[in-house]
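Anyone? Bumping this.
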Amino acid sequence: MASPRIIVVGGGLAGLAAVIKIAEAGGKVDLFSIVPVKRSHSVCAQGGINAAKNLKGEGDTTWKHFDDTIYGGDFLANQTPVKLMCEAAPAIIDLLDRMGVTFNRTPEGLLDFRRFGGTLYNRTAFAGATTGQQLLYALDEQVRRYESEGKVKKYEGWEFLSAVIDSKGIARGITALDLRTMELRSFPADAIILATGGIGAIFGKSTNSVVCTGSAQSAVYQQGVTYANGECIQVHPTCIPGEDKLRLMSESARGEGGRVWVPRMAGDKRPVKQIPEAERFYFLEEWYPKYGNLVPRDIATRAIHKVVYEEGLGIDGQPMVYLDLSHIDRATLDRKLGGILDIYEKFVGDDPHNVPMKIFPGMHYTMGGLWVDFNQMTNIPGIFAAGECEYQYHGANRLGANSLLSCIYGGFISGPNALSYAKSLPAQEGDGGHAAELTRQAGINSSLLKSKGTENPFKLWRELGDTMTKHATVIRYNKGLQQADEKIVELLDRYGNVNLSDKSQWANTSFAFARQLKNMLELARVVALGARLRDESRGAHYKPDFPDRNDEQFLKTTKASYTGDMIGPRFEYDEVDTQYIKPRPRRYDVAS
Amino acid sequence: MANKTVSFEIKRQASPDAPAVWESFEIEWRPGMNVISAMMEIAGNPVTADGHSTTPITYDSNCLEEICGSCAMRINGKARMACSALIDNLEQPIRVEPLSKFPLVRDLQVDRSVLFENLKAVKAWIPIDGTYDLGAGPRVLPQEQEASYPLSNCISCTCCMEVCPQFNEDTNFVGAATIAQVKLFNNHPTGRVLKEERLRALAGDGGIQECGFAQNCVEVCPKSIPLTNTISDISRDVLLQKAKDFLRN
């Protein structure tokens, strides 16, 4: 048979990693991306990528990386794929190095490593504080090489709308929208890989890029793909609050010695540099002496909340704490953290070389995502997923610098698996469902353009973001989660009354946004109701009314299926693979 | 008490063939606002300063932290990233218009794919043997890493091309960003296997000799890449390559 056609949706690290593997194996790839792939959200990752290379004489091993990852995720991740990822990590770093990533170096010319949260080892390779940018570019360059050889065709500026699924329930392609001409088209494929990233936009403001709406994941969820652990949302402890977004301040700032503190005295009015050492409350170091400022993100985030909201010690009474690098010499900061310090200065106006930064937690990452098997395939044959859009590697809390790894590893696994799946795929009957899916999508488009209501989609989105941030981030109560779901149902109803102020058929960004919004609303229910049902605290999912982890009842993967009913998703629970490491209490305040 | 407002004049154009018009907007001021957050406000309430309903503005944006390179536009006449253009630092009315050297799509959105084509032409990649495990990469001294790192920070925003007097249809000049990538890859221990091909790609029509050393590029680069030094270095390499090729023939 002719060589299989694979469609990859998303041009971040996971998508590009999949493309490279498929092209290298001789497959043909069509690569779809809303933005030019070089502008994908992976570019925002800052601090580094983990691999137990043990180049610092510390006795680090891939097993310890595996254990830190499972423990950091509070035992919710299936252990087999995590173990394989950690074992593959050192070779992935070598490959990236060979691709020309400008990793920081030791005097001998070897890769340098630094510490990150949730580990006691220097395990994080880094390129200044723009590691995601450097990694994305390295993969982008390799894909450009394949593109120039005719093995990859890029569809940049196209947005994925749905999978094409045949009468037997097998994926046969996708439908997509040209964001410039607004043309709707279907594209045939023997397998598709979704690598469509995070869902930050569901929370309004987050550290995510504008394209991270979760729209693609939600679209296939509504077509029958199961969504797993949706309630597991990471709130990053150190962000710069902004009008348009929350800008990330990398964990590497703490990895290089940054210290988090507040004045011991509430409402201390002295200029920050005049507050003596003894009157500074380094709460992470006091509460977690072993890990100090490098506790995992969920722990640091809750500690900041406690200091601000329970102890009333936020700077100037505001929800903010200091992240202080001003004790570290300028040359070291520039060599290891250049990039993020410029960004802080550009957006805030203060120079973090001289004064402590003011930061606060912000929504950052979804550990949950499309359910996949160990081959990265969802429950719909032919639909694969890799990267942040799937759920597999981080359990209930992701460790810093594990996301770049899981993106590349997941891409590397999904690409060859999609190819071998496609090679044994029986020919489709008829048109494989293309005409029917195009008709369905055309119907959605025309009803949206014709809608003569009064609701502005951007305003509905703000209301969604406000309710999700309020009820479904750091501290969760069942009553609040219930209110959040009721609000989402209300917004879904009002969505039916939406009115686009732009009805044109050329580069109509509000039209594309309105389509994404519907998908965001459907997926938000999975997050809110999944959290409502998990009556325990585990990793980033924290309920004061259920403060302990409950393995007996909830050491289980949440699986949500779309019902099309106002009642919302149907939830089921799967056992977690814990065959290698027996779950133990997760305590960062004492030695484990 | 009336709230403090910010005034904008934004150049609109519904399509490449449509006439360009300026629209004015008055937006409520908030601390920390940038040009992007102002346009988000307009999307939520698309009404001009004189009360006319209009459409949300079409523009490219993604990361909003000046690392993806999407939101380059002209703000008060200067090519820059809209996300890092803080309102409080700008003179009002803030005049926003699209980059002028690239095909217009709509409003502030332009087509900058020429840069990616140029990167293809100069083979801006490391030709690795394969993705299978071949062990560690070449050793690189910290000084070499520190020289390469700034070049690898290029975000493909194309501001350097926008402000270059030589970047136009008459010269077909590739622009500073592409030349900087040639230097990056030619300096890499493995990347230099394609060094001669890259230099030859810059030797012909639209190549490095089109540079007029106006030095606008280095002024405008949001990532402070040493573009003019880079162009000097690569100019020399291209000349040497031309001489070598001449002698060989």
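Late reply, but here is one note on the structure posted above: Chain A touches chain B through 73 residues (CB under 8 Å).
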